[in-house]
Amino acid sequence: MEPSDLNLASTVTGYQRFLFLKLPVAGDVSGLGTKIEYLGQTMENMHIESGPASEEAFQKGRYQFLRAEPLLSSVRDIQHPAMANADALVRLEAAVPDPLLAYEAALRGFIEPLGGSVETLCGVQRPRSYTSHAMTQYAYVAALAPQSGQDCPMAVVTPMNKTSAWWSMDWMHRESFFLPRYNACEELAFNGHALAAGAGISSIVRRLVHSEGGYGIKGSYDFVGYFEFAESANSVFRRVMASLRDVSQNPEWTYVKEGPEWWGRRVSTAQELWSP
Fold it and tell me: What is the CA radius of gyration of the chain?
């Protein structure tokens, strides 16, 4: 289903690619880190940057290296071993897809001949659909701006699908799940998405990537969530996700099927993907 068919924003404001790596452990891997570093020579390293991307940097492309934290990660509803078992991740973003596609092709050329692999999740950035002026004030005015990898070293990727029942709803019905619900006595009955996620507004950098081809497509995720935060906020992230998954307080999650929850640590160089 296309965004326009669902009364969702259809404008594309950027592109992202998540390249999950199974790193080679045999063969001549000497110099592989240097080769990967070279791929980003014209791009901005997000690890050392804070705040939104400049127009020039976003046009050329930006990258972030992440080393897997397997003890923090978990398998959810959808089995996806190539992602769940990845040793590392290279996250890419740009205003146009070309530099990201070129980077991925070259990375595969380095990794795959040595016995490693690359699993790709990709999507587009779109304007927010389920919002209003009041909701924007609540959810985004106090939101944590992008931080450097030193200040926010932890990152989590959460791909997901909404069920066919979700996509068959009228758009007003879907939108109602994001707000609290009250009973006949005007008492709070359900928190809804907004209140369930409220604890993370000021401490978690949030990004949502949409499937470029539309929603409800077999073999593809509808959305990829990406989050960055300080290590001290690990418990906040887990609390937010537990609240979102509690269907007694957030009925929206009745219609959600999650891929792996992949945790990683942001690092500044490709060499650090192998070891601290």
Answer: 19
